[in-house]
Amino acid sequence: MLDLFYHCTCRNQFVCWEKQPIHNSLQFLFKCLSIMRAMRLVMSLLLCALCVCKSVQLTDENFYKETLLSGKRGNWFIKFYTNWCTQSKKLAPIWIDLTNKNEGKVNFGEVNAMENNELTQRFGVTNYPTLIYIVGNKYVKYEGPNQLDALQEFISETYKYGEKKSIPKAPSALILFLENLGEMIQHQMNTQPLILCAILVAIGICMGVTLGMIAHVVLKEPAVDTKKEE
User: Which GO BP annotation is one of this protein's (predicted)?
Assistant: First the structure.
């Protein structure tokens, strides 16, 4: 009996020590409780997975590819938000309910305005959250309250009566290259100015030599055929 007392894993060891017959029952009961807690945790995780927002995270890089070039059918309802905005935080659970309610009918996307300045400026977004509804190559800005019924009514019907604006065109590859080049030069100026100056000097020398050779060829006097003159 003493051996049972020291090796018992029940919470109340004295009960098992005094009443050995109920030891196995208590052990079984505690195991059942542990299994029930584990099952409750699993069910909670499953419910959380079902409630995950089915909204695509859009950025400066993938916005046009996802919304206009991906071939997905249906309109797009897009939210511009910030992590520090109180109204954006209040809209978050409503947005999840809206996406789940319209799964397969409307595409949903969201843009972190602080991390995607180009996209935010292109659509003229200054207040958060800002919601736009893309239909074809046009979009309508939502002006109503951030309530589930009002949002549902907007994407179902009332967007038809809003002011339709053309979607801003994506910048050309040349413009993006020049912008990235400018950012790279600015970064190098702040971090490694001497290396950047050396690179610019080398580029200048190469361009000077190239222009000099071109000028020499173009401005060179034509050779005179002395045999014809004789």
Answer: protein folding
Q: Which residues 6+ apart lie within 8 Å of 1 measured at CB?
A: 17, 20
Helical pair 193-219 and 173-191, crossing angle rounded to 10 deg: 130
Q: Residue 147 belongs to a domain with what CATH number?
A: 3.40.30.10
Do residue 153 and residue 185 come from a single domain?
no
Q: What are phi and psi of 145, to 5 degrees?
A: -75, 155
This prediction has a pTM of: 0.55
Q: What is the largest CA-CA distance in the chain?
A: 138
Give the strand pairing for 56-58 and 107-112: parallel
Phi, psi of 196 (to 5 degrees): -65, -45
Look at residue 33 and tell me if it is in a domain: no
Kindly report, residue by residue over 73-104, the tens digit of the pLDDT. 789 999 999 999 999 999 999 999 999 999 98
Q: What is the DSSP string of 109-145?
A: EEEETTT-HHHHHHTT--SSSEEEEEETTEEEE--S-
* Domain match, 132 and 152 both: yes
